Amino acid sequence: MPSFDEVLKEAGEFGRFQKRVFFLLSQTGITFSSLFASVVFLGRAPDSFWCRIPGAAELSERCGWTLEEERNFTVLSLHLGNESVSGECERLDVTWDASVSCTSPLARYGNRSTGSLPLAPCHGNWVYEQPHSSIVSEYDLVCGNAWMLDLSQAILNLGFLAGAFILGYAADRYGRILIYLLSCLGVGICGIIVAFSPNFTVFLIFRFLQGMFGKGTWMTCYVIVTEIVGSDQRMVGIVIQIFFTLGIIILPGVAYLIPTWQGIQLAISLPNFLFLLYYWVVPESPRWLLTRKKGEKALKIMRNIAKHNGKFLSPHHSEITVSNEEVSNPSFLDLVRTPQMRRNTLILMYAWFTSALIYQGLVMRLGIIGGNLYLDFFISGAVELPAAFLIIVTIDRIGRRLPFAVGNMVASIACLITAFLPEDIPWLKTTVATLGRLSITIAFEVVYLVNSELYPTTLRNFGVSLCSSLCDLGGIIAPFLLFRLAAIWLELPLIIFSILAAVCGLLVLLLPETKGISLPETVEDVEQL
């Protein structure tokens, strides 16, 4: 009986069929990256807001004030009396009733300066010039509630984490394409509910669920793509990252054209329903079918692949070699039971954590230096495109380990240099920081490929999902690490990033080289790498 890789060579390792499936599934990267980075635009800080004095709404209606006039009577007079008070998080501790004059509402306090009037903290009585432009103005995530915006992103990353475990396990047990389609449905439905959430609690619950299903779509489509191509064509795992970058580049344009956060949320959620049409064009992974002792179904799919590729399988291919490894429900112990699997798992977990922490940290660092949000975000995404092309031209020539290690080491050096460059040469500081961003993107993209190549088919989806869950943990920690350490010294986070990347660059050299090697089918295959 021929092996799967022998049959795949005969059917075509990257023919018309695989190219079509690759292109269709790659679109998932655009929607996933939009979800991944959406908080930047969903949570835009409002251009202008202030705290309304109790009774001001009724007085404004009686007096026929515009919002600008109401603001002048409250905030402007408050600011003139005390320049340190902006009127956003504090208000005059007064109440306006029917006896207040429309022309001079503060006249009742006599000759007292507004600076001598008592102040009170604002509690849920804010007025926004654009009340539905972001979730910040929608749910009053300002002043003492500002930390809730960070919570919303942490909740999304927790959803990614849950998706990595729950849906990664499910994809290994129930099939890749089934979990992919269910995840697409879940992302779409949860996205709609998020857009029309009546309160912040409902928003957080369904943002968590959208993150969970979103991770399911991304990880599962990635595994399907790598399992249906030959060992010489697995750089498609890198090319698919370009579509993730395209999502990052497209997102600021979408946000610029759509004025409300609900519109942005729907724009990044609704396309997932189109992916349900893949039910009729994307088959189950034949590699997975073989691990579940479904050789006949796998052979039927392989014959269909050969037909679309203009090839023909030999008549003696009545059966494909089925994995001799006992099919069981995967667990973490399976990933650390043998020496090589244990080494690979621990190093990959650290690499995922480091790549995500540094990547998100550098992205958010761009945000705290000000500037045009849309343009800065677009440029930060465009910087990632050369990373994929650099990997494509080197990955099959010099292998995986060297680009993996060099990406981390260059990122480490760039972060260290950036931290100590003087502020009076901003162009050089920005250039070196951009080099760090490019380098860590290379490392981030290579870890996807290497992770899928170092696990057997029976554990591949679970292994990729489990290791990449450390990416989500890094995403949760990144904002706290960045902003807390930056409060001590602005460049301190870069020192931490440099140390983490340097350690990672050394560790990945201990991984086996997988260039040109067939995907391992069993744990024994991994041990012999």
TrEMBL record:
This is Solute carrier family 22 member 3. It catalyses: guanidine(out) = guanidine(in); histamine(out) = histamine(in); (R)-salsolinol(in) = (R)-salsolinol(out); (R)-adrenaline(out) = (R)-adrenaline(in). The gene is Slc22a3. Keywords: Cell membrane, Glycoprotein, Ion transport, Membrane, Mitochondrion, Nucleus, Transmembrane, Transmembrane helix, Transport. GO terms for molecular function: monoamine transmembrane transporter activity; neurotransmitter transmembrane transporter activity; quaternary ammonium group transmembrane transporter activity. NCBIfam families: 2A0119. One of its GO terms (cellular component) is mitochondrial membrane. Belongs to the major facilitator (TC 2.A.1) superfamily. Organic cation transporter (TC 2.A.1.19) family. Residues 99-516 form the Major facilitator superfamily (MFS) profile domain. PROSITE patterns: MFS (PS50850), SUGAR_TRANSPORT_1 (PS00216). One of its GO terms (biological process) is monoatomic ion transport. Pfam families: Sugar_tr. InterPro entries: MFS_dom, MFS_sugar_transport-like, MFS_trans_sf, Orgcat_transp/SVOP, Sugar_transporter_CS. It is found in: Apical cell membrane; Basolateral cell membrane; Mitochondrion membrane; Nucleus outer membrane. The chain crosses the membrane at residues 21-42, 151-170, 177-196, 202-225, 237-258, 264-282, 347-368, 374-395, 402-421, 427-450, 462-482, 488-511. It is a multi-pass membrane protein.
